[in-house]
Each structure stands twice: as C-alpha cells, then as structure tokens.
Amino acid sequence: MQIDAVDQRIIALLVADARASYADIGTRVSLSAPAVKRRVDRLRATGVIRGFTAVVDPAAVGWTTEAFVELFCAGRTTPAQIGAAARRHPEVVGAYTVSGEADALVHLRAADIAHLEAALERLRAESFVTSTRSTIVLSRLVESPGVGPSTG
Questions:
Q1: Between 2.60.40.10, 3.30.70.240, 3.30.70.920, 3.40.50.11600, what CATH number should domain 58-136 receive?
Q2: What angle do CA 50, 47, 4 make, to 5 degrees?
Q3: Whose CA is closest to 11, among 34, 43, 58, 41?
Q4: Helix or strand run (H / E) with residue 84
Q5: Domain boundary assignment for the chain
Q6: DSSP state letters, 95-150
Q7: What PANTHER family does the record point to (predicted)?
Q8: Are 118 and 84 in contact (CB under 8 A)?
C-alpha cells in the first residue's frame, strides 16, 4: 500500500489524539472531512491502522512500579512460546525477542515492589525460563504514543 505525506500526517494526528474529528484533522492537513474519512477508512481496510484505544496512565490505576526483565530460555524456545507465556501474566505490558545475550525482553508493571516480585516469580516459573535479569525503572524520560512524524 502506498502511504503519502498526507496519510503520514493523518496517522500522526490520530496517534496524538484518536478522538480528533475528521473536520479537525482536515483543517490540519488541508482536506475536507469526507476526504479524511475516506483516507482513514482506506488505512483501516489495509491494516495500516489496526484500531483505536484509550491510553491509561498506569499511576492513575495504581501500577506505578515497572521493570524490564531479560529472559534467558532453555534450548529451542520459540518466540510463540515466549509470547504465549507473556500473555498469561497481567503485569506484562510488552514482550520482545531481542539480539544479544538474552532471548527476550519483558516489560512488567505492578502496584509495588512486592507485586513486581510476585509477578517476576511467576514469570520465572515458566518451564522454559532458565534465568532472568531485571532492571527497575526509576523514572520515565521520554514516551511516545506511536509511530510517525511529528504533528508539528
């Protein structure tokens, strides 16, 4: 699918505020509201835009402790196995296969250190996990809601 500069700008505006009206977006990209809607419909139909969601502040729901955990796995553990295990743990907010020594990197969020420790112990209990190495987040410096160019 061909994505032009206007599509990229529309995507960036939706990432910044998915509730923006087609008219508001149209004003920013010099298109009519119906033209923006057609482009968004096309972006959705082709899978460029997979959906719209609410972004929740973890602190607002009390999950203020977070860590990145390197997983070291046994033998021929597949990415699918790691992903399936990660989805079983509600504290997991992201899981990635990575290059380097570790097999995967898991992002955990929890209410406090005790909750984080319990989640980490459950993750370590997965049959393929041989060891972990954790890094606790002290503060968030930069966080981006999505991909794409700046909305200016």
A1: 3.30.70.920
A2: 110
A3: 43
A4: helix 79-87
A5: 5-46, 58-136
A6: EEE-SSS-SEEEEEEESSHHHHHHHHHHHHTSTTEEEEEEEE--------SSSS--
A7: LEUCINE-RESPONSIVE REGULATORY PROTEIN, TRANSCRIPTIONAL REGULATORY PROTEIN (PROBABLY ASNC-FAMILY)-RELATED
A8: no
Give the tokens for residue 57: 């502040």
Q: How far apart are the first and last CA of the chain?
A: 25
Q: Which two tokens stand for residue 73?
A: 């796995």
pLDDT by position in tens, the chain (length 152): 789 999 999 999 998 899 999 999 999 999 999 999 999 999 999 999 999 888 788 888 899 999 999 999 999 999 999 999 999 999 999 999 999 999 999 999 999 999 999 999 999 999 999 999 999 999 989 877 665 544 44
For residue 44, which amino acid is it? R
Taking each helix axis from N to C end, the angle separating 33-45 and 22-29, rounded to the nearest 10 degrees, works out to 100
Token pair, residue 106, equals: 């898991």
Q: Which two structure tokens, joined as six digits, stand for 20? A: 């923006």
Residue 91, token pair as written in the block: 């504290």
Identify the residue whose tokens are 């992903």. Answer: 83
Q: Please, which residues have CB within 8 angstroms of residue 75's CB and are 6 or more apart in sequence?
A: 128
User: Are the beta carbons of 11 and 151 closer than 8 angstroms?
Assistant: no
CATH number assigned to the domain covering 5-46: 1.10.10.10
